[in-house]
Specification:
The complex is a heterodimer of chains A (about 300) and B (about 260). Chain A is of the alpha/beta class. Chain A has helices at about 45-50, 70-75, 95-105, 110-120, 135-145, 165-180, 195-200, 215-225, 235-245, 270-275, 290-300, and strands at about 5-15, 15-25, 25-30, 30-35, 60-65, 65, 80, 155, 185-190, 200-205, 210-215, 225-230, 250-255, 260, 280-290. Chain A is built from eleven helices and 15 strands. With about 260 residues, chain B is an all-alpha fold. The chains are: A alpha/beta (about 300), B mainly alpha (about 260). Bound molecules: adenosine-5'-diphosphate (ADP) and magnesium ion (MG).
């Protein structure tokens, strides 16, 4: 199978508060999986369960097709992790902090620290003590640390939090290029819709601990495209007329009698005329705006923003 | 052959993590704090003997000099300073949010505990040896009692033994640090058991009170009310129970 992460009914209680509720998610090989949810939705808790840092109350976790509770060590050797709050030893330099990882991971490659620090653009700061690092530098160092052992799966918990706009852009580009050049599967959490939109190809939406939807971005876009909505009495013959007489092929029959046309937005009156002329009853006609943001707000009960 | 090789590998693995624990102490102020902390004992002793030498020179012997310094250290300072470095070693990983990295590299949680314990053992022995050396050094700054080899050897052994015995008390401090994740509780605990030891050492109950035992077993020369095996058992039991608590607790804990 090509599932890199697979959870089944993953559940976590803190005391008697349910924080993660029967989450069953699937991350496929090569995905950039955007884990989207508001603050407090349960993203960090889920991620920490995927890494064995938090013990699930219930449910199963498979990573690389193996049971996490049984093969934790083997699995983690192939995973890179950038925590939400990246921790380093403040009395050590950036390079020394990374050396801890290369030693423990048994990374043999000679110039690996130079390589990863160059990738994230802080090689010049390698000899600075961590207590002198800015938040942005720490975030980069944390990403550098997570790719030291050339992982197949990279898990990033809100990596652009607390970065300035330029830093956000750079980190985004970095993640994208890592995924493309190194063929790493990426699992990235965020509370910002536009960020996930720009990065991910699959989105999982978590809200109050529950996974509301898991969908590829293409499908999502298709679902949310701007379209002409036509309600007719006979969708079969109406479709034929659209194709034959108007040359419209980019449409779908959404429900019985309800057709969505994704092109020809400026030809709305022509569509109407041709259909009526051909003896079709047009019951309703209009233009619908597809909007991801509206979609998410609707999905999560409409009482807040992402 | 294969099993020998793999167990050899395991041993080197353990030392690799230990090396990491040592790297983490680079430029750490706590190293200096601990050296300064234990240094207070010989320093107090030195000041005392400096004035004693002026006022009652007949009282000044090399045995008394070492003995008094040792009592300052073991009765007042050791539990506190060793508790402090233990708390530092464990709670810094929470305060600096470094466990998320350590435990996902992956190092197992039991390995973390064991390696930190070994590091603390080395650190404690180092501090004991430092204190011993510092005591000798201070003698040559204005006191100049003649050293006798026999006495030197005797106290060298006492200092070493005291360090080893104190190590048995470390897991309890570690457990408190793991659970509370702060200095306040473990320092509070250190103060309480230090005072309790001061009160209890001269009674027979001191012989089974673990925090009074490093002194009683290593430095005290009088008779015991109970068999010494009771004392040794009490100390070993404390070590095993609290170490087990540490490992169980840490393995079950959610790292947040
Ligand atoms: N130890 C805890 N005890 C009780 N509630 C907790 C604990 N840790 C986290 N929570 C709660 O769990 C919810 C999910 O937290 P988290 O997973 O950090 O969300 P996110 O990462 O999506 O912002 C939040 O409401 C948070 O307050
Ligand atoms: Mg979070």
């Amino acid at each position: 199978m090509c599932a890199i992460i697979k959870t089944k009914n993953l559940t976590k209680y803190f005391g008697n508060i349910k924080v993660v509720d029967k989450v069953s998610l699937t991350v496929k090989r090569g995905d950039i999986y955007g884990f989207l949810g508001r603050n407090g939705a349960g993203k960090t808790t889920t991620i920490k369960m995927l890494l064995g840092l938090i013990n699930p109350t219930k449910g199963e976790i498979e990573v690389f097709g193996e049971d996490l509770s049984k093969s934790k060590r083997k699995i983690l050797e192939r995973v890179g992790y950038t925590p939400e709050f990246s921790g380093f030893y403040s009395n050590l330099t950036g390079a020394e902090n990374l050396k801890i990882n290369t030693r423990l991971l048994g990374v043999q490659k000679k110039d690996i620290i130079e390589e990863v620090l160059n990738i994230v653009g802080i090689w010049d700061e390698r000899n600075k003590l961590l207590k002198k690092y800015s938040l942005g530098m720490k975030q980069r160092l944390s990403i550098a640390r997570s790719i030291l052992h050339n992982p197949e799966l990279l898990i990033l918990d809100e990596p652009t939090n607390a970065l300035d706009p330029i830093g956000i852009k750079e980190v985004r580009r970095l993640i994208k290029s890592l995924a493309e050049k190194r063929k790493i599967t990426v699992f990235i959490s965020s509370h910002i819709l536009t960020e996930v939109q720009q990065l991910a190809n699959t989105i999982g939406i978590i809200h109050r601990g529950r996974l509301l939807e898991e969908i590829s971005l293409d499908e999502l876009r298709r679902k949310n495209r701007r379209y002409i909505e036509v309600q007719v009495n006979n969708d079969g013959s109406a479709s034929m007329i659209l194709e034959k007489k108007l040359g419209i092929y980019d449409y779908e029959v959404h429900e019985e009698g309800n057709i969505r046309i994704y092109s020809h937005h400026d030809k709305i009156s022509e569509v109407n005329k041709v259909l009526i002329k051909s003896g079709i009853d047009v019951i309703k006609l209009g233009i619908s705006e597809g909007n991801l943001e509206d979609y998410f707000i609707k999905l999560t009960g409409g009482d807040g923003d992402f | 052959m294969k099993t020998i090789l793999s167990s050899l590998q395991e041993v080197t693995e353990i030392f690799r993590i230990l090396h990491i624990e040592l790297i983490k102490l680079r430029r750490s102020t706590m190293v200096w704090v601990s050296v300064f902390g234990v240094g207070i004992a010989p320093l107090l002793n030195y000041l005392m003997f400096l004035s004693l030498k002026r006022e009652m020179p007949s009282q000044v012997t090399i045995e008394r000099y070492f003995e008094q310094g040792y009592i300052f250290l073991s009765a007042l300072i050791a539990t506190l300073i060793f508790g402090l470095i233990t708390t530092y070693i464990f709670s810094r990983e929470y305060q600096e949010h470094t466990l998320e990295n350590m435990l996902t590299i992956p190092v197992t949680r039991t390995e973390v505990i064991i390696n930190k314990m070994v590091l603390l053992f080395i650190w404690i022995i180092f501090l004991m040896l430092f204190t011993f050396g510092f005591t000798i050094l201070l003698n040559y700054i204005g006191i100049f009692i003649d050293l006798r080899l026999m006495i030197l050897i005797k106290f060298f052994r006492i200092y070493l033994l005291t360090g080893i015995l104190h190590f048995a008390l470390i897991p309890m401090a570690a457990f408190i640090a793991l659970v509370s994740k702060s200095y306040i509780y473990s320092i509070g605990f250190g103060i309480v058991v230090t005072i309790m030891s001061l009160v209890i050492t001269n009674t027979k109950y001191g012989e089974v009170f673990p925090w009074a035992l490093p002194y009683l077993l290593a430095g005290y020369e009088g008779d015991f009310h109970y068999p010494v095996s009771y004392s040794i058992a009490s100390l070993i039991l404390t070590f095993i129970v609290s170490l087990t608590l540490c490992i169980l607790y840490f393995n079950r804990e959610d790292i947040e």
